[in-house]
Fold this protein.
Amino acid sequence: MKALDSVRWGIIGCGNVTEVKSGPGLQKAKHSELVAVMRRTGELAKDYAQRHKVARWYDDAEKLINDPEVNAVYIATPPSSHLEYTVLAAQAGKAVYVEKPMALNHAQCQQMIEACKEANVPLFVAYYRRGLDKFKKIKELLEQGAIGQVRSVSLQMYGQARRFDKGLEPWRVQPETAGGGYFVDLASHMLDFLDYALGPIKDAKGFASNQAGLYEAEDIVTAAFLFESGAHGTGSWCFSSFEKRDYTEILGSKGKLSYVTFDDSPIVLTTEQGISEYSLPYPAHVQQQLIQTIVHELRAEGKSPSSGESAARTNRVMDSLLSSYYQSPKTE
């Protein structure tokens, strides 16, 4: 794909995630503009366009993809349609930016990567922590040897049970739409960041179950994993707990780093010299910094840290951890 002068975005699926996290970031990034939006319910697409001052709206994804003014497509729908829309956008010669998790499973991720390669268009995924200052600081501290050699990582995420009326469960706990439950939605961010900060996970084994019986998807996952670097890792995610918890600790030979993934609370560095904290607040639109790296790459001015290849690795790890629960593929 030739370098773009200005990146003119079209959004497929202008739902809640696009209101603050991403949509305004597409408009505010340098050399970037949002020119069209699409939602299956036309009135909702029209309303979004009017409120965000977007020139055109559609209720048909293919019409947006084939809009000659659009040269990059942001797919902000649930994971079940990521493959379909990515292929269509690639075939139309448009750059693709897709929400996380990248797809329902690793096999679909590979199809998306191949479709974009064949069409010679780039593929990016919205693991926006790779662009946030807080998480770049964690990576920087690790690379500087602040905790020495990394030995192990421990992840914990607990949430209280959520009850829904039968047939009214949100798509995030419908495996056919989300690829799993809240684990897939939330742990994907945690695992992807570790891929960014520590390198790829070589092997992962785990158990998944549904303990509370409130919906079809898994509600607890425990994991053990091994990084290509030799570091070890463990994880525990429970979504029917009495408490809420979000905590990651990276243990090294000379210290440890601890942090929360889902807010901008300080990073804590502990060594023999004492405890240091690093506070790096989130920007108003959390995806904007990653979006800017994508715009830089599309303009041949840099490289974005979140690609289809890196995101597919996270799907591969999650597939391994969920294989005990989903004995057959979640989709064809």
Q: What stands out?
A: The chain has two domains: 7-126, 133-281+314-322. The mean pLDDT is 97. The longest helix spans residues 182-198.
